[in-house]
Amino acid sequence: MTVNKSLIANFALHESSAIVKMTTGAIKLKRIKDGNVWIATLLAFAMIPMSGFATDIYLPSLPGMAGALGITNSQTQLTLSLFLISYGVSQLFVGGLLDSYGRYKISLVSILVFCISCVIIANTKSIYVIYAMRILHGITIAAMVVSKRAFFVDLYSGEQLKNYLSIFTIIWSTGPIVAPFIGGFLEVNFGWSSNFYFLGGFGAILLLLELIFSGETIKHTTAFHPAKILAIYVEMVRTGSFTLGIGMLGLAYSMVMVYNMSGPFIIEHYFNLSPVITGYCSLLLGFAWMVGGFLGKGTINKPFIRKMNINVSFQLVAALALLLTFSLFNQLWTVLVFAFMVHVGAGFTYNNYFTFCLQKFPQNAGIAGGLTGGLCYVIVSMLSYTLIYLLPAKDGVNLSFSYIALILVSALVMYRVFVLNGKEPHHTA
């Protein structure tokens, strides 16, 4: 089944032009209407998983994309790393801009630019243009997601706010779970570029609904003082347990990203299976991350050091079992069973250390959240791409070695966090 790219591109550009005019007018709209708050809240939740969709939907298409563009596997995988870097770095700065210039205007422009860049990716044959657009994706999605986090703080408080914030991780997890499944279907039926048409179309729907139902939520803007913000960042980074805690987040999510970058090639090249199978496998391992998050939330009151020691031991056993069973049986099930266990442990680690990091600076929770998320994604991009470069995506043995390396480093960093946390003063509100 083929897609008339010229027809779709002309239609998309025509629609983009119309949306530009609507967006320009909407920027001048008044604040959000009370009667639309519940719809705008649903839209905010719908935007939270966008970062997961932007990375995971085209995972089943990585091998096909490399073949269609005539590039290497590592060049294709770099499109993921560049997105992660720009997404992470942008989160470090976008919070201050949102506080100074409002959430709504920046969010609308970001969605529009994201949609246009998706159309450009789907219609280019240049990997360098794709690189540039993926960097733009990271910047715009960071603005979209962070603005919607602020949306909840603007409109809700007390137990209602705590309830909404508590399900952020669960909502975010739907992206990595659902996106590869959709991407596998699109790859088989329409080719790799259809993933980006889908992302652009989804973004366009969100933009139109935002124009109709949403609005500005910030009550009072604050002057933008880079020097004051920088001083807070420096204080946080100099707190060793906080910085190493972010390192633990990066190591945990790198385990997932290493699979995301290597799994499609193992399944489609090594086992000669369909991209649809890649989608099913990614869906399963996305569910593993969610299970780890639920376990982390369920054991939140358990002794921290003990449960983290058990978790890292569990992960190491699973990674070693993957190495042994794949060497013996050379079957896909060995990858899925033990990678599932590793990813459950990674989700558990992430859930616990994200809470740990945010609690370190309760008086600057917004900046701490942006710094935590931003640095985490920068670490993930560097670690995952380095491991894939050193241990190319060819079979389960290399994947198991990548897991083992990340788990052993996690154990060392975790020990150092415990030591530093006991020596540092605790910041209170």
Automatic annotation (TrEMBL):
It is found in: Membrane. The chain crosses the membrane at residues 37-58, 78-98, 105-122, 128-152, 164-184, 196-215, 236-256, 276-296, 308-326, 332-353, 365-388, 400-419. The keyword Cell cycle does not apply. It comes from the Bacteria. Pfam families: MFS_1. Gene3D superfamilies: Multidrug resistance protein D (1.20.1720.10). Residues 40-423 form the Major facilitator superfamily (MFS) profile domain. It is a multi-pass membrane protein. The keyword Membrane applies. Signal peptide: none annotated. Keywords: Membrane, Transmembrane, Transmembrane helix, Transport. This is MFS transporter. It comes from Chitinophaga defluvii. The lineage of its organism: Bacteria, Pseudomonadati, Bacteroidota, Chitinophagia, Chitinophagales.
